[in-house]
Write a structure and sequence with these properties.
GO terms for molecular function: ATP binding; ATP hydrolysis activity; ATP-dependent DNA damage sensor activity. By secondary structure, this protein is of the alpha+beta class. Helix content is 36%, strand content 19%. α2 packs antiparallel against α6 and α5 packs antiparallel against α6.
């Protein structure tokens, strides 16, 4: 094509890419993931307690991606394989959990209101759980009969399946109306984190993988997803050497 080589467009991804690559000397190859210096700890006892309890990943060096689903990393003590979907679930879960507790920050006015039809029984139940829905940033406007309108939503609601997310939240509120807000926030956060996280068979470049692991390391529990499943598995150096019969 006029002497020009065609380029394949990079895969789209719903995750921010750092403007500048993270680099640091490393004994592993290729690209290292850097554990940034910890943020200054406030002089209060509470801050010290939180920092002490926070789990941290070891320093991981990204080697590559396996089956467009797993991130393979090297470390001083062996090899790690990270489930990319579970990793972003943990990141998104903590983001949504915090934002569900502060629903009045940023809202987006819908160009066309979302119209939702319900049965009479569901409509009556919705009226009972209206305060609970408002806590999650969802306000339903009666529109006659068993119809409700949603005119605005928090900006962090998933856009690819907005109606499905709203209906899921309403169903959850009706089903568990007797639970407290904290439990509701947790369940809703898990639901939305799962829907909005990257899936398996999704190619990532090195910058994306490094940024994902960097953000995972900032979470309060980087080893398990919100459902309790492991995010990573490890083979120690000894286990690897034993597999190759280098040690007994």
């Amino acid at each position: 094509l006029n002497g020009r080589r065609s380029r394949t467009e990079p895969p789209t991804w719903n995750y921010p890419i750092p403007r500048e690559p993270v680099t640091s000397p490393s004994r592993w190859s290729p690209t290292p993931l850097v554990n940034e210096a910890p943020e200054p700890i406030a002089s209060t006892v509470e801050s010290e307690t939180i920092e002490t309890k926070r789990e941290r990943l070891p320093q991981l060096d990204v080697i590559g991606q396996l089956h467009a689903s797993y991130i393979v990393c090297g470390a001083e003590d062996g090899m790690y394989v990270i489930d990319q979907h579970a990793a972003q679930e943990r990141i998104k879960y903590e983001l949504f959990y915090e934002q569900l507790g502060n629903p009045d920050k940023e809202y987006q006015l819908l160009l066309l209101p979302l119209t939702l039809e319900f049965t009479q029984e569901e409509a009556l139940a919705i009226e009972e759980v209206t305060p609970l829905l408002k806590e999650a940033g969802l306000e339903l406007e009666p529109f006659g009969g068993n119809t409700f309108l949603v005119r605005e939503i928090p900006t962090w609601y998933p856009q690819h399946d907005l109606e499905g997310t709203v209906r899921d939240l309403i169903e959850m509120a009706i089903r568990d109306r007797s639970i407290d807000i904290a439990k509701y926030r947790e369940d809703a956060s898990i639901l939305m984190a799962c829907k909005r996280s990257i899936k398996a068979n999704h190619p990532l470049n090195h910058e994306m993988m490094r940024q994902l692991l960097h953000d995972l390391n900032q979470t309060t529990s980087p080893y398990t997803c919100p459902h309790g499943r492991p995010i990573l598995v490890k083979w120690s150096t000894y286990e690897l050497e034993k597999l190759f019969k280098r040690v007994m």
